[in-house]
Amino acid sequence: MSGTIPAQKAEALIRRYFQACNDADHQGLVDCFTEDAVHYFPPGLPGAPWRSATAIADGWVWCVKNMESRWTIEKVLASQDGIEAVIEWTHWKTAIGEVLRGDEWYIFNDDITKIREIRAYYASPVNKADSVNRLHDFDYEARGYALQPPSPAPKID
Predict the structure, then answer these.
(1) Closest Cα partner for 135 from 87, 91, 102?
(2) For residue range 16-27, what is the model confidence (pLDDT) as tens digits?
(3) CATH fold of 6-122, please?
(4) Which part of the chain is the SnoaL-like domain (predicted)?
(5) Helical packing angle, 53-67 and 6-23, nearest 10°
(6) pLDDT tens string 26-77
(7) What is the CA radius of gyration of the chain?
(8) Long-range contacts at 16-23 (CB < 8 A, ≥ 24 apart)
(9) What three-state secondary structure class fits 94?
(10) Taking 90 as the threshold, does the pLDDT of residue 126 lie above it?
């Protein structure tokens, strides 16, 4: 990515990370993170925060295997220096018929080749009674947000 501006490097790394999530690519996920990376979540997720590149990869591969998880990136905003970024995402848990939307704040290493930290914020508290968790009265369709998962989840043995 020589010649790429830092904000573009940050966005490309986030997109590579999400592709690795959707592919349940354990090594691809590990490769996106510093060894000591941390992924923080709102209260309630067992085992959170996930500490280490391997723990993060294990978590997302588990989600694909057990919930047929799929993810879409809705919006990306990266700082000019590329050291931080924020995104909006959708997590499609297709096996259990649940959809979760939220934001994440990213911090990258100095050369923007690895993710050091992710802080996740959900659009709303997870309500198991709702199959789609979303902001009240926000028109996702009119704003161009994904309304379906990007593809079927891969089968994992």
Answers:
(1) 102
(2) 999 999 999 999
(3) Nuclear Transport Factor 2; Chain: A, (3.10.450)
(4) 14-111
(5) 50
(6) 999 999 999 999 999 887 778 889 999 999 999 999 999 999 999 999 999 9
(7) 15
(8) 17/115, 18/71, 18/72, 18/73, 18/89, 20/60, 21/60, 21/64, 21/69, 21/71, 22/64, 22/70, 22/71, 22/150, 22/151, 22/153, 23/154
(9) coil
(10) no
Interatomic CA distance for residues 122 and 67, integer angstroms: 18
Give exposure, 17-51, as e/b (b: 16+ Cβ within 10 Å). bbbbbbebbeeebbebbbeebbbbbeeeeeebbbe
Beta strand spans in the chain (E): 33-40, 50-51, 69-78, 84-93, 98-108, 115-122
What is the domain partition of the chain in residue ranges?
A: 6-122
